[in-house]
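so im writing up the methods section and need the Diacylglycerol kinase family lipid kinase record in one place, dumping it here so i stop losing it
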Amino acid sequence: MFVFIVNTKAGKGRAERVWTRVEEYLINNKIEYQVLKTDSKEEIILLRSILENARGKVRCVIAVGGDGTSHSVINELAGTDVPFSIIPTGSGNDFARAHGISKDCIKQINHIVNSDHEKMDVITVGAKSCLTVIGLGFDGLVAKVTNEIKIKKWLGSAAYIYSVLKVLNYFKPANVVLTIDGEEMKVENVWLIAIANHPYYGGGMKICPNASSKDGLLDICVVHSLSKWKLLSIFPLVFNGKHLGKKGVNEYRGKTIQVSSEKQLMIHGDGEMIGETPVTISVKEQALNVIS
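--- predicted struct ---
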């Protein structure tokens, strides 16, 4: 049996339209399925009871939504070996972008039904798991503002750019202590720290171009010691990953990252708010079964 989690708010209602086509495919091909439709990520907790009642018969849990829906689903799959997949209908779709997942829903569901899973690393923050990127500082505040935009679903990935310009007006960089696998460094005037399991976030921004979910490592991008206008000037370079190597942009890799700061910095994971500094972030190798 396949279980579908349909976020009815995703992609300006696109998830509902896509689900209609997917359900028709399932019925025509006599494929057993169960669907949980929700307009609230909190309701995805019901997935746990579905898995328990199915007693090992679930072949895959498929999110019909975006990165936020995927984030909620994989946290409910924690501790199970049930594979995860996605039919992307969100505003950013960065997980799907990183894995080359088709936006053609029929092509993707046919692929899911007829494919085996593979193992993928996840990022852990306390009891939380994340798929793509964790962002701290300027990045975390941008994610918060983006999620609060009432017309986010109409703006799509442009919502992130709008939020960047808004937050740029009042965010103040902070001094940070960054510890990577036990090696401590002090970094002054930090704008943001991105810790990545995949290259993309923010609807196609290639923040850590070399990040991979299969290498047992996290890629870290630290942006610091830049004026507001210099930060704005290199911002467009992030879309093709050309920001790395520029003055004030440093790249690292590691398994366990600790961040403390002189003032609390907001943290997002997969675009969802998950806390504030201080924080310890780790990679959990081959922790999730995925059909991509």
